[in-house]
Every structure is written in structure tokens, then in C-alpha cells.
Amino acid sequence: MADKQPLNIVKMKKMKVEGVPLSMLTAYDYPSARLAEEAGIDLILVGDSLGNVVLGYDTTLPVTIDDMVYHTRSVTRGAQHTFIVADMPFMTYHGSIDESLRGVRRLMQEGRAQAVKMEGGLEICATVAAVVAAGVPVLGHIGLTPQSVNMIGGYRIQGKDAKDAQRLMDEAKALEAAGAFGIVLELVTEEVAEAISKAVSIPTIGIGAGRYCDGQVLVYHDLLRYASPYREKRFVKTYADIGNQIREGISQYVREVKERSFPDESHVFTADEIVLESLYGAAEKGAK
Q1: pTM of this prediction exceeds 0.90
Q2: Which of 27, 138, 271, 284 is 20 to 30 A distant from 39 in Cα terms?
Q3: Residue 251 annotated as binding?
Q4: What's in the keyword line of the UniProt record (predicted)?
Q5: 2 domain-assigned
Q6: Is 186 annotated as catalytic?
Q7: Rounded CA separation 215/242 (Å)
Q8: Residues above pLDDT 70, as percent of the chain
Q9: Which of 224, 240, 256 delimits the end of a domain?
């Protein structure tokens, strides 16, 4: 989509005001990013979820800044006309501001991202403000924060009681005040996500947070059921089952190789007679 104009944070805020939802999808490599852009996606997130769905880890915690730079660079080559956000991985933005800015610099300069995403609330607001002051857009992320899964007791729904709902509201407003251009709400009850979306002037992007956020994000491999085995998730809708198609396609290839039905005549190249003569002649000469 060479004629596509990428979004920016001003346009996104205007879309919230006008009630136009944002579509966001994760991508981790060149072909998936290119396909997402061709399909018309608004934003691409190079998520540290690549640890689970691409690198084979049980959590996102082992993902490094080098991993994120590598995959972000691949995605930005594939989707040159789409706004791309890169995740700051575990423990790369909880130390000194200088250390955090070094990681941000790598994702922006080497990865060529347009923005970074950080998980957390009040505890990261000073870092968010410093990164924004350095000229880098920041997308916040509250609710279920996978990098803190060991602290929050697993993958649990957030905002189920009044105290937790107020905590999420306070965190959203604090991130807005710190300069975040938007906030991902993950596994948050629909009522709380709706209240937060109405209370802040920046877009909210939900994943498992109901129908009333300003946008939605899904993981590429969930949307396309591209995994084996695939684990069902209540908040995910499968739009295509390519995992099964891939498995069936490879199985058919294996069968045809075993049966010698692939390659057939349509897949081979033939040589001129003079070439064949020279080959056979060389073989005969070598045999004497």
C-alpha cells in the first residue's frame, strides 16, 4: 500500500474524538508485517509476546533488547507505511533514566520504530515523562501486565472490585499526565475499561477489555490460529485457521515426496542434447 499515509499520535487522538476505532495487530517479521499493512491495519505492535509465540519461551521475561531490535527492524522493513510500536522488554526501563533511554534509542535508531510501549502504572510515570521529553512517543500498558506475571499471581482478570478499578483509573490518568499518547488495557473488566476510556483524552486500546475501548489489539498468531498446539482464549476471535492449513500442506508434501509424485514433469528443467552429450561423454571418459 504505497499510497497509504501512516498514522501519527495527533491523528490517533482525533480518531478518538470522532469515535473512529483503531485497529492494532502484533507482528514479528517482514512477511507478517507486510501482510498486515496490505490488509489495512492502523498500527503494528512488535510485542515482547514474540517470546511466547515465536521464540518458544513460557513467558515474555527472557526476551532481550537485542531480540526486540532484531524483530522491530524486520517489521519496519515490511510495513514502511504503518505506525509501528516496539515493546520495551523486561527490566529495561526500571533502572536509571539513562539506561532506559539507551534501550529506547536502540529501538528507535536501530529498529526504526515510531514509538515504544511500556508496561506499568505509577511506578514508571517518571520514565515515561523522560522518554516523551526526549521526543519519543510512549504507549502505556496497564491491567494484566505479562512482564509482572510473577507479582500479580498469574494471568488474572483485572478490575473486578472497586479497589482494583480505582487503581487502574489512577494509573491511566497518571500515564496520560506523564505524556503517553495511548494506553493498552489488557484483561480488564468491560465496565472499568469503558470508564477509563471516557475519563482520559488519549486512545485506549483493548485486548480482552470489552467493547468500549477506542481500539483493539490482537496477537497475530491468535487471530490466525498460527500455533501448535493452539490454546483457546475467550477474548480472541479466530479469523483464519492457517495453522491447520500449514500442517495439512506440509503433510501433503511429505506424502508426495515418499510416493515420488513430486516433483513431476511440470517442475523439472530439461537440457539441450549437446549438453547431455557432453555430460555423458565426460562420464565415459572418466570411467576409462
Answers
A1: yes
A2: 138
A3: no
A4: Cytoplasm, Magnesium, Metal-binding, Methyltransferase, Pantothenate biosynthesis, Transferase
A5: no
A6: yes
A7: 25
A8: 95
A9: 240
